[in-house]
Each structure stands twice: as C-alpha cells, then as structure tokens.
TrEMBL record:
A Pfam family hit: Enolase_C
Binding positions (substrate): H200, E209, E336, D361, S413, H414, R415, S416, K437
Matching InterPro entries: Enolase, Enolase-like_C_sf, Enolase-like_N, Enolase_C, Enolase_CS, Enolase_N
Organism ancestry: Eukaryota, Viridiplantae, Streptophyta, Embryophyta, Tracheophyta
Protein name: phosphopyruvate hydratase
CDD domains: DD_AtENO3-like, enolase
One GO process term, biological-process aspect: glycolytic process
Entries under SMART domains matching the protein: Enolase_C, Enolase_N
Enolase N-terminal domain location: 47-176
Enzyme class per UniProt: lyase
Family note: Belongs to the enolase family.
Residues of the Enolase C-terminal TIM barrel domain: 184-474
Keywords: Glycolysis, Lyase, Magnesium, Metal-binding
Taxonomic source organism: Urochloa decumbens
C-alpha cells in the first residue's frame, strides 16, 4: 500500500485538518497538545483485552484484580472476596483451610476472566455498561454467580465503568450518575465504625459494630473531622478505663475493648462524642450481625464466652425489647441485621415499631427477589448494598433504584477485608445513596473510600450537598 493509499484509507488528511481548525478556533495555548487530544477523542475506545490476577485484600486473603485494556488506556479495579467459603468442608477446614479454598476459587476466577471474559468483551465500547455487564452475566448462569464468582464479575464490571468514564472524560461518580439517570451532587453521611465486636473482634461484645453518623456536620469534610476526633477520644477513654491492651482494633478498624455489653459499648461512644464536643450532632448505629449468634430460634449474647452464665440466651421477642430500650436510651438511629437472616417475622415486628432505620444485610443479600419480598412485607426499611454480592455495576444500580422506589434508606457498604479500590465512594455519590459504611478512620482499605469522598466534595464545590439530617431520604435531581 502506497503512502497516498494509506492516507486515503484512514482519512488522515481530513482528520488532521479538522484537528488543526479546532485548535485555531479554540485559540489553544499549546496547539500540539490540543491536536493530540482532539485526535485521541476522534478515535472511539474499544476494549482490547481483560487481564486478571490474584492480589491480597485488607486481611491478607486472596482477592481478584482486573486490568481492562482499551486502545487508549488501561483501567484497574479490584473486589474483595465474597466472604468465607461455605459448606461442611469449609466448616471443618479451619482458617488455614478456608484460606486455601478461597485461594483456589480466586485462581479459578482469574483463569476464567483471562480466557472467557476477555474474549467476550474484546471489541466492545466501554461506555456501554449495560451491554458489557450483560455479556459478563451471560457467562455465568448459575444462581448467586457461583461459577465465575460475584467478586470476579464485579472487578471486571468496575474496570469497564472506569474505562467508560475515562472515554467520556468525566469523573467516575458522574458517569455512574449518568447510568442511574440522575445528577451527582449529594455526599453521603459516613457510618464510621468505632467499636468492633462479634466475629470481627476478640472481645466479648456479641454485636459486630458500633458506628457513629455525623449527621450534624455542614459538609463531608467536617463529618470526617468529627468522626476522626471522636474515634481518637474514644481511644483515650478506653485507655483510661481498661488499659493499653484494650486499644487493639478489630477487622474494620474499630476498637475492641474487653466488654460484653452493648450498653457498655454505647456508653463509651457517647462519652467520646461528648468529650469531642459533638453532643447532639452525632447519632449512633449498630450492626448486630445476629445470624452469627442465632442458634435455633434463640440468640446467645455470650456466644464468645468460655464461661457461659446461660442468662443471655434470648428469644427474638427478647431482642426486640433490648432494641427498643437501646433506642429510647441512646441516640440510636439505625440497626443493621437485628435478627437471623431467615427471621422475616421479627424483622417485620421491629420495623413496624418505627423506632429507627432497620437495615437488611444477610436478610436481603442485595438480592432483587429478597428485596422485593421485604418491600411487600415491610420486613425492613433500608438496604445494605454490598456490590460484590450483586455481581455487576448495572445490577447494583438496579437494586438501589428498587430500594429508593420503596422509599428505603440505602447504605452502600464495603466488605470485611476489602481492597484499596475506592469504587463504592463514587457509587455512593453517583447513586445518591445517602449513607456509606466503609469502616473506621484507621485502616488503609477504609480510608481510601473516605479520602475519595473528600476529593469528590472538593471537586463538586458549591454544587455538592452533604445530606446530613436527610441521610435516609437523600435523592438526586
């Protein structure tokens, strides 16, 4: 092929002339850079390959990282594992065995991504998120994404979402807002972990987390300031009361003092809030994770104790009385997973009392069918969205819409042992979730989400609105 034939085939002369004319019209201070950018935008982006690898999450456990290549750039995303492997083999394997099982599942996912997924996505436009996600879903027809794994699917989907945002030359949260069909202007209230218990800490506290919500802040930056200051005052109080050995932290970065009473934990947090000077401006929330200590139809509040008194074996109705008392005695505005994952009856009883937000985690599993049932039966009034339970960005957006249509609260959540990917921060803004749960102001995989939200708020400037007291009813225009 001659030079002239090559130029004519690719219309280079015309394209270069258009770029030069555009630079002249724009009076570009650096015409070479302007022309280069113009030419780059003139060529549509297409996916050229997808590569995956095994990395380590915040607990040092195997996780999936994906690099999605286009003809213009490389976009990276990662997703935490979907949790501990289930089944009799996993139950009898111990921590080391479970880690090996998880490593094998991640290795299998990496192979599938590098082969089947990459082949399916090559040539696709990264801006077409729904089409990309459908192509991924078509490769795994199993229930709960059992073949490929929801976390592996999510890593690919997030990488594609980042590529789509880059092609549109907009921030990731704005691209997500476009996919939702809204504008991205609202900053969520952070549900900041300050005390860990349950299976996420070695103390006697049965519930998994005590969190603070800085609803009285004027913006997200102040909310994180309030949260961080309270967290550090809490450390001082624990140090004074229990000694240095009680200042260790749990899985989400919350402190793990040697306490066994929910009230004792809430009292510590209230004292920290008051010492920080934020009394009345910070509300409290708890993640009970009650499935972890439900045995039959009763709840063992001493399930971690080696010296059981048999006085803390509670019925579901007993637990409702406990929650009612806590809501009356403390500024407790949200209770997550208050009962076993299959106890729809008592979750409904608590919700209908309208004492606080009742957020479904294990009860819903971010599953559209379970959400639909919960909406119809009024079993809870908020969704805890864990995107790697869903599988793709498109599906995550759909369940957020489902929850918001029911006038529920939406709490976008990280996972235990999450990776340093900050996608959920952009998702919380893009989907106007109103709430984000990303752990304590302590661990790197937690802080990366909060720091991203600080950047987003700065970028939004006067357009950004911190939802504050409207944390349950946040919406976007």
């Amino acid at each position: 092929m001659s030079v002239q034939e090559y130029l004519e085939k690719h219309l280079l002369s015309r394209k270069i002339e258009e770029a030069v004319n555009a630079a002249v019209r724009a009076k570009a201070p650096d015409p070479v850079l302007f022309i280069a950018g113009h030419m780059r935008r003139a060529a549509p982006a297409v996916i050229t390959r997808v590569r995956a690898r095994q990395i380590l999450d915040g607990h040092g456990a195997p996780a999936v990282e994906v690099e999605l290549h286009t003809n213009k750039a490389v976009h990276r995303a990662s997703a935490a594992g979907a949790g501990a492997p289930e089944g009799a083999a996993a139950d009898s394997a111990g921590d080391s065995g479970r880690r090996k099982i998880l490593a094998r599942s991640v290795a299998d996912a990496v192979r599938v991504i590098n082969d089947k997924v990459s082949e399916a996505l090559v040539g696709m436009d990264p801006q077409q998120q729904a089409q990309i996600d459908q192509a991924i879903m078509d490769l795994d027809k199993a229930r709960h994404k059992a073949e490929l794994g929801a976390n592996a699917m999510l890593a690919v989907s997030i990488a594609a979402c980042k590529a789509g945002a880059a092609e549109k030359e907009v921030p990731l949260y704005k691209h997500i807002a476009d996919l939702v069909g809204k504008s991205a202007t609202t900053l969520p209230v952070p549900a900041i972990t300050v005390i860990n218990g349950g299976k996420h800490a070695g103390n006697g506290l049965p519930i998994q987390e005590i969190m603070i919500l800085p609803v009285g802040a004027k913006n997200f930056e102040e909310a994180m300031k309030m949260g961080s200051e309270t967290y550090h005052h809490l450390k001082d109080i624990i140090l004074e009361k229990y000694g240095a050995e009680s200042c260790n932290i749990g899985d989400h970065g919350g402190f793990a003092p040697n306490i066994s009473s929910i009230s004792e934990g809430l009292d510590l947090v209230i004292a920290a809030v008051e010492r920080a000077g934020y009394n009345g401006r910070i509300k409290l929330a708890i993640d009970v994770a009650a499935t972890d200590f439900c045995f039959g139809k009763k709840y063992d509040l001493e399930f971690k104790s080696t010296k059981k008194s048999d006085q803390n074996f509670k019925t579901a109705d007993d637990m409702i009385e406990i929650y009612s008392r806590l809501c009356s005695e403390y500024p407790l505005v949200s209770i997550e997973q208050p009962f076993d994952k299959d106890d729809w009856e008592h979750s409904k009883k608590l919700t209908t009392l309208e004492l606080c937000q009742v957020a479904g985690d294990d009860l819903l599993m971010s599953d559209p069918e379970r959400i639909k049932r919960a909406v119809n039966e009024y079993t809870c009034n908020a969704l805890v969205l864990k995107v790697n339970q869903v599988g793709t960005v498109t599906e995550a957006i759909e369940v957020v819409k489902q929850a918001k249509d029911a006038h529920w609260g939406v709490m976008v959540s990280h996972r235990s042992g999450d990776t340093e990917d900050s996608f959920v921060a952009d998702l919380a803004v893009g989907a106007a979730a109103g709430q984000i749960k990303a752990g304590a102001p302590c661990r790197g995989e937690c802080l990366t989400k909060y720091n991203q939200l600080l950047r987003i708020e700065e970028e939004l400037g006067s357009e950004g609105v911190y939802v504050g007291e409207n944390w349950r009813t946040a919406s976007a225009s």
